[in-house]
Amino acid sequence: MTTLTGVELRRVQMPLVSPFRTSFGVETSRKALLVRAVTTDAEGWGECVAMSSPLYSSEYVDACADVIRRYLVPALATLERLDAVAVGPALAKFRGHRMAKAALEMAVLDAELRARGVPLSRELGAVRTRVPCGVSVGIMDSIDELLDAVAGYLAEGYLRIKLKIEPGWDVAPVAAVRERFGDILLQVDANAAYTLANAHQLARLDPFDLLLIEQPLDEEDVLGHAALARLITTPICLDESITSARAAAAAISLGACRIVNIKPGRVGGYLEARRIHDVCQAHDVPVWCGGMLETGLGRAANVALAALPGFVLPGDTSGSARYYRTDITAPFVVEDGHLTVPTAPGIGVTPDDEALAAVTTDAEWIPV
Ligand code: NPG
Fold first, then answer.
1. How far apart are CA 155 and CA 151, in angstroms?
2. Does residue 314's CB lie within 6 angstroms of at least one atom of ligand 1?
């Protein structure tokens, strides 16, 4: 019977190859929290997708570390039998904190699958050996700078471009990219920067034949998205609003979205992510895998998830080089617009000791 021996929380700081600007701020380096779960059978790695400030969602790195240390690890320590499927139910009494829960569940799942010799992709039900890659392009100082960035990504083989938008940076960049690059797969992401009062402005994106507009309105404004869907023709995709399979089912029933972005960290883990995939598939709602500037650890797991059958759109699963000069795992390299799904047990990758040590700013052992 497997039990938990302890958990290591490790903070890393990794410079981004170029600043990444969204409607809520600029990231110049990724300060991430990594989780190493040690069990009586194996050890496994998890990555927490929270940012250092609560700007994308209410979670942030220090809060995640605190809740993991103070509540989540002690709750898992009481389990007589530590299975990844038992993690969610054991942590359910603690409200929210999905990114923290997801990181811990990922580490336990990785350890369990390594012990069983099963790759995460097979455990989740993957049907592909490689996944098509998109890239998310931040807000830039000028249209020329944006066009250069997009040209570079297309030359690297990316199959879909996502433009970050905000009021004042929406129709003009989209029009410029369409005009210059023609019939590419193109979508936009607003990170909740608009209100329903902006519907007229958002409708001006309709002629550009976008795949989707992602999260135009506030995360809690599901009804607003349903109203907006009746005013624009571009399909609405939800990200921040979809926190669980239940939330996905409700948003779909209400007509708030026709497409769903699945980020395992945002929804409490890979097992809930698979449930959202299943709900969406049952409703013929296409899904794609989002990204949170993950290191190679989170990327490995995201690529496994993106290989499930309902992931029919290219995800924000870019190659390591789009983010980091040196990743902490062997780099993921885009070939022919695709990333290869890892085949080794668990998430299929481990950190390189030296690379990890070089970016570690703090490490803490939590015994159980
Ligand atoms: O490729 O990992 C990536 C980044 C994809 O745009 C991306 N992520 O809102 O989806 C998002 C966004 C994000 C980035 C959110 C940074 C939070 C922080």
1. 6
2. no
